[in-house]
Each structure stands twice: as C-alpha cells, then as structure tokens.
User: What shape does this take?
Amino acid sequence: MKKILILFAHPAISRSTMNRAMKEAVTGLDGVKVHDLYRRYPDFYIDVEYEQRLCEEHDVIIFQHPFYWYSTPSIIKEWLDLVLQHGWAYGSEGRALEGKCYCHALTAGGDDTTYRSRGANLFTIDELLAPFRATANLCRLRWLPPFAVLGIHRGLPDELIRSHARDYHSLVTALRDEQLDLAAATNSAYLNSNLAGVIRQP
Ligand SMILES: Cc1cc2nc3c(=O)[nH]c(=O)nc-3n(C[C@H](O)[C@H](O)[C@H](O)COP(=O)(O)O)c2cc1C
Assistant: This one.
C-alpha cells in the first residue's frame, strides 16, 4: 500500500463547493493524509522540517486546489519556495523526492473548450502547469497529469459534484492500492478523462 499526501490549499473553504466535496471524499481514508495548508499556516509561516518529513513519509504527493490566475493559490508557491531546498529536493545530493508520484487535483471556472490555443484562455491546462512539471522534473518526481474538474463557472449540479468527488476518491484509493496504470494515466490529458480505463481491477 502506498502512502498518499494531499496538500490541500483553498483560502476560502467556507465558500467552496467542489474542493470541499473532494476533500471530504478522501478525508479519513486509510493511508491518506489530507494536510490543509491554509488551516495549518494562516500566517504563511511554513514549518519546513515538518513538511519535508511529511513528504519523506509518503509515496505520492497531490496538490489539491482551485485554479487561481492560471496557477495555484499563493500558499503553494510559498510552500515550494521554502520546502524544496537544495540538497534535499534537488541538486546532486538532493534525492528526498526521487521516484515519488506527483500530481495536481484542480478545479477551474473555465471549461475545457476555453483551455486551448484558440479558446478564451489561450493555453491548455497542461501548458499552464509547465512550471510545476519542470519543478517535478528537477526534483526527480514522477509527474502525472492533473485530476481536473473544469467548467465550474457554469454551475455544477449537485449530482455532478458528487460524481467528481466519487471519482477523486477512486483515484486516490487506486494510487494508494497501486491499481492505477501509471503508463496509461501519464498519456491521458487529465487523470479523470477516462478514469475507469486507467484503474486496474484487483
Ligand atoms: C482569485 C481567483 C482566481 C481565479 N482564477 C481562475 C483562473 O485562472 N482560471 C479559471 O478557470 N478559474 C479561475 N478562478 C475560478 C476558480 O478556479 C473556481 O471558482 C474554483 O475552482 C471553484 O472551486 P471551489 O468550489 O472549490 O471554490 C479563480 C477564482 C478566484 C477567486
């Protein structure tokens, strides 16, 4: 069984619908730690040693967050700036994260048609995540495409919110139980594009 670390970042969780439902769907699962960064660090004073130890103790790292200005809420940038130290995360001696799987679980207002070169947002989600992918590469993390819930500005019916939350639960348990076909998943645009197709049955 793999150990999963979910670094959760939503600065206004009381106004969240999608991230809250997704968070609830994976909270309390065996082998899964949901670590709420804004709750733990309301003043942004990140405990670097604690965060590094958490990463070392887990096999899969997921940043779960709403898409803010084509990126993450700011505490994730602060986390990256402070936690990914030379000699620990990267550099010739920095191998603490080597081989761990890493992905984003993100929600966005714009729908899929807006995230393309001729769409309103000009770039794909994959292109916009390039700095995170490059970071993963430098830290020898294994990059997986994002779990993405798009089109939230249209308003998602309750049943669809529940269905995305169930999918997220399935993804996280499949990662934990090593049932995700990593090669197939890496070729998907989003991990949830064809979730049933990338999860192996036990
Ligand atoms: C400060 C801010 C920036 C945002 N930037 C984007 C963006 O760049 N692209 C996008 O599609 N949606 C953007 N949104 C919409 C959020 O991604 C959307 O409200 C969120 O994913 C909904 O999830 P929630 O119900 O968990 O809050 C932004 C919202 C806020 C408040």
